[in-house]
Structure formats: structure tokens, C-alpha cells
Amino acid sequence: GRALAMPPAASQGGALPPPGPVKGVTMNLAHSSGLSAKVVGGMTADPNDPDRIFYVAGSTVVYGHLGKTGGQSFLRGHDDDVACMAVSHSGKLIATGQTGVNADVVLWDAVNGKELFRLSEHDEGIACLAFSPDDRLLVSCGIHADGKIFAWDTETGCIVANGALSPRETNAIAFAPKIQRNGTYYTFGTAGKEEVVIWGCDAGRGLIGGQKCGTGNTKRYFTSCIFSPDSQELYAGSKSGDVSTFNTRGCVLRTWSPCCKGAAQVFMPVDGGRYYLVGGGDGSVGVFNPHKPPTVLDALDYVWTFEGGVTSMSTVNDEGYRSGNPKMVVCTAAGRKYVAYVKRRKSGVANPKPVLLEESHVDAVSLVQFAPPAADFGDRGPKAHANSCTQAVVSCGGDGALKAWNLNPRPVCTMRTKVESSAMAPMCVCVCDQMFMTGWADGHVRAHDNVTGELLWTLPDAHAQGGVTSIAIAHGAHFFCTGGAEGMVRVWDMRKRQLVSTFKEHRNRVVGLTVLADDLHVVSASRDRSIITWDLVRECRVHQQTQHVGGINACVINQANPDAMQMVSVGQDRSLSFWDLMDRDPLQIVKGAHSQECTCAALSSQGILATGSKDQTVKLWDFDSGRLLAAQHAHCGSVSSVTFSADGRTLVSGGEDGIVMIWDVAVNR
Question: Of 119, 426, 545, 633, which has the highest C-beta tally within 10 A?
């Protein structure tokens, strides 16, 4: 092949990695951001720890200290999304249930994070879980397709009793505080589609049975339930935003009271059950006082209003709790965690408004990319400490949400916007100093302002057949390149946004584009197993490499030495293929780099290669030798994207589980 002509300035561009071979690398999780925000009851505080919380994130449960960075731990034991979670009253046990064919219930030791029992009697999925007041029983309810209810002994993992679930479509379960017959007879309630059922479980005799509550002509779709402190009444919230009160002895409806707009999804007792806060599907938190049921006008006077429907509320046992002015942590379906005072006013003085603790994506994180060091993302606030990363990160969600983050090191969202498009998630992203560009399945390229997220312009039908799968911008920012699902590579004038060139040799979608430092050559990688270097002046192919097995998912190039540029490709063959840009055959192939398909790759300025895979791991490699340096079981779904900061000390990964993970990377030479 013809040698690449590099201008003198190009050879001085990108700083070389520090001298000396890499002896080792440490890779530590600095922070994990993200949760399954739509799981009702998917976040709760630890009864034993003042500020530790548990929350569902994909197929795992994450627990860590509220408001603190890092120090998080993970409960991994499911192979599909966790649909429900319960924490025992003592705080010593956690139960999780998942969706899918392997609809297991897993019982965990909340102190050391170890799996105690795997309960595998349900099919199709688990709807809800609840512990008895003494932690001895765990009751699990299946989804409609399963239709079963089980009571489990938490000490042995054995079945105490089981039966047919009612209502068949159960949304909530709650135990009565009082246990009868020398601690062997338990009462609990289930609520769901148009039915509330009060159950009795005789643990000593292994019997279980329920009685349907009469509702008269009232038709409600019940979404939540809780017992009164004396176990004499059961309160059930509905999609209509009201709370129905049932007498547990006669199983009859006594009254119903409006409390919020949208579904009354979550109850939280206050002052030992003297009254309850009710989280609504519209983001409002209302008050339900069983001793003084609210009128319609009272129901409009909310305690707080949040963005997104309230899915979890839990009291934080801090100093304010003992002084009669407690706080609570609130999770909403918009992926936001708030800390707020339980009471809006204390002694006639208004409490401060809720504080946004953290926000996250509510769908899969498809892309993450660090912005250039000089990129403008507005006021990022003060640095938390000397090791904080000063670069912004742009992330893209599967629902079309676009966000920019400042890492201090906890992610703080500085920009958020959402593209309402039939294309849903963007397929690629490229960040510039003043804007970032995204490619979509509808064939359009969209450019957004870094600070405001405002849509600056749209390039329609850049790749009409299948969408825009890759974008790269020239170092001089005077042109940009796009790759499409149909295999074409196109070059566009940045200012006029007019087509300059089209290259048509790929036979499958383009998965990666890199503009070389001279702004005269572009390298494209495709799922058709080919990597092609293009001469933009002569508009022709300069060189081509072909991977022997499996389609390519990502390709990164080391441009530190312009006279001997090398690259690595990853893909379906689960291997790393190292190439010289001008040689036809690979320099080295590292087979079995991951146990499943490699999905993404990134190269740091320190010469460290990061790869992500469907096996949920992120691994670090020495680019020069291909030696494995570090590996972490990162996500609870496929790793979608990885990106390094400019100094190579921070790595960010995004996954199908909707989580963004920030890693500290230290290189020892």
C-alpha cells in the first residue's frame, strides 16, 4: 500500500504515552449512577444504618451510603431484570424477584451481601414480595401468567404454604403488624385488579387462605396497600389516586378518600402510622389521615411535587428523625432521587425544598463519550477534590434522552434534552467544543448545543436506508464524516452541511470512523469484517484489512506515532485483532479476550485499551503487548460503550442496564 503523507504539524499532534513499559494497572469503581426507576418499591433505606439505601438496577441490587460517592456494593444473582424487592423489618434480609423464564426469588444476607437461598417455584415472573414483621416468613406473588403464591421459611428456605394467587393480577402485598396464636398465625393483604384480598397463614400447620373484600359498586385498579398499626384496617391505593379503607374482620369497604392525582403507588407511614404520605403517579406526595380523611380540596394541597411519578419513598433515619423533623429519600419514574423533609412545615416555618440527589437514565445507556478538554458545557460548579475529572461526558439513552455530566466524581447532570423521534435511541455520537452530533435510525444527523441541549440543526436523510451508525469530525472542524447502515461513508462540509464525497465499498453497516491527524485520510470499520483507509483528496481507497472471522463492532486507532500507526478491532469473534494501518495481516490476535461478543473499545492517552462485552465485563489491556491488565464484572447487562478522559485516569462505561459507571484507572510504569 501507499504510505500516508503526514504534514509536519501532524507528527507533533497527540502526545506520546509516558515512557517505559506498563507494569500494571489498577481499576477501581469510583461511582455507579443509575437505577430501575420504574420498579415500584425499588429503593428503600436500611433500617439499621442512618443513610444506607438499597435500590434495584437492572438485574442487580446496589447498596451504598446516601449522598456519598463510591463505596457501593452489588448483589448479583439474577439473569434478568429484578421486578421487585423487599427489605426485612430488621434490615438483616433482602429478597428480590425477577422477570423472565427463570423467575427465581433470591434471599440475601443484607449484612455481608451473600446469597442465602434461591427459591425457584414460580414461572414467568414475580410481581411482589413482603417479609413478615418478625422476619420469619417471606411471601412471594407471581405475575398473572404464574398465578401462584408461596410463603417461605426464611431460616431454611423451605415452603411453609402455597396456593392460587388472588387477585390473579396482584400489584402489592403487605403484612399486618400483629402476629397471633403464639407467633404462628400471620395476616397479610394483596391488592390488584379490582380486588383486595386479606389472607391468613398458619405457619405451624402449613395452611394458607384468603378472603376477598367486598367493594360494592366501586371498581378500582389497586396499586398499593398497607395495614394500620393495630392491624384492624387495610388501606389500598388505586390508579384513581384515592385510598380505600377495608375492615380486616369483616373484609368490607368502609370508605374511600382522594389523596393524589395519578395512581396512589406508594405508602409511607409517618409518626408510627398516625398518618401516611402517598406517592402519586403524577409526582405529587399527598397526605392520607385515616382519622380525618381528606376532602377533594384537601387532596389538592400536596406536601411536595417531584418530576416523574413517585415509585419509592423511605424515611432516612438521621438526626432530624429524633428531633421530630425527619427526612425521606424519594425515587421517581424519571430516574431522579430526591432528599426531602417529610413535613412541609415545622413549627410554622417552611422547610427547605427537596434536593435533587442524583438523576440517571431510565432506559439502556447506548452511548457514552468524553467531550474534548476545551469543550464548553457551561458552569460545572466547584471541583469536589483534586482528583475530580474536569471533562464533561455525554450519554445517550435508549429512549432518546441526551445528557451531559460533570464528574466530581459523582455525576452531576449539566444538560438534558430528549429527541422525540420514531428512531428512539441515537446510534452514534460525536462531541465537539460547542455542540455534539448524533446519528439516528431515521437517517438524520442532529446537532445540539452543549450547554442548553437546544437542537441547532438537522441534516435529513444523511443515510436514509437504515440510519446513521457512525460520525467523526475533522480535527480542523471544517468537515465531518458519517457512516450508514447500508455501508456507505459520506463526507460533508461542516458550514454548508453539503455532501462532498461518497464511498461505497462496505457491504454492511459502518461501526466506526476515525479522521486521521492530517485531515486527509479517514479509516472506516464495518460489520462486513473490513477496515478501509480512504484518501479524501483522491477520493479512493488507500488500503484495506479484512478480519478473518466474525463481524467488527468497534475499531480504535493509536495515532501517537504518525509513522507507525496501529489499531485494534473487536467484534463477534470475542478476540482482539491488532493491526498496522498499512499491513494486510494482523500483527497479533488475542483470542478469547471475552467469553461473549465484544461490543465496544476505547484507547487512552496512556496506551491502555478498554473493551466491553456482552459478558457484562470491562477489561483493560496493554495496547503495545496485548497483555490483560485488569478486569471487572461491571454491568448487569451488555456493556454498550466505553470512553476515556483525556488524561487516561478516568474511564466511563454505559450498559444496557441503564447504569453509567465511573472508574479510576491508575497506570504503574
Answer: 426
